[in-house]
Batch of 2 targets.
Target 1
Amino acid sequence: MLLTLKDGMRPNVEDYSVSLAADVAAAYYKKPVSFSAYQMFHIFSPDVAWDLTDEQVDLLGSEDTRTVTERAELEKKLEILENGLSGLDAFTTRSGGRGV
């Protein structure tokens, strides 16, 4: 019974992370997204986009070198963390959840 109770009280990290991200975004962005999308439609209309050259589109849609490098480093860190989590999950399963 204690194991069942313990498992039921284990926090769901993904749900908590999503909730936290939504709360932070709501606090950071004061205006609703729909209002911003409406404004952007009038600022950056399809007519403007149609007239852009390929080079201009590349400039608008590309990331700077620093961002690309940072993303690659973060992906490596994420892979390491996911592998560690898998190892911990396997250990917990083998040990039957004791001592954790």
Target 2
Amino acid sequence: MLQCLNGIRSVSLLRLHTICFYSVYFWFVRVTLQITISIIIIIMSHSGGTHPPNNNVPKYDKDSDKEKEFDYKKFRAEFRRGKLEKRYEDCERLCLQAIQNCPPNQLRAKVYNHLGYLYENCIEGKHFDDVLEHYVLALQVDDTSVSAHFNLANFLLEQGLQHLARALELNPNHRKTQQRLASLQSFGGGHVV
């Protein structure tokens, strides 16, 4: 009887430990993402980058009638065709033109998201800042963009995995690094464009 109670107690403690670990983990990921986005926005607003500071990025306007001037379906078809044919520089040009011609609404947010995806996955020589800038710009224009939130989170998660792998190379016996790397790798990845 005593062994049975000890077994139940150890299972309960294991479950409690697991629940606490994941609660703290998800809180940590959420806070880290919020802090990272805030830092990026501050850096972009002070760096004189290629885009206006955070407070000058026009927000999504649901009532914008300019949306009819930009043919997103045509843009999307050309973008997909260029991507399939591996003409990534043409896709980049297409996105940059669309940003100039598209009103600040959900469509522009989608274009920023496409450009971030291109910079992350297709175009050589683009840096962390280029990718991050366009995912953040997509969210500045339309903070309800599920694809942009997903792609930004996935991008940052992949960057974190790379740093954890490097930390493990430097010290293969670092227990916290081993645990965190194993837990993050179980999440997988992918992008939404």
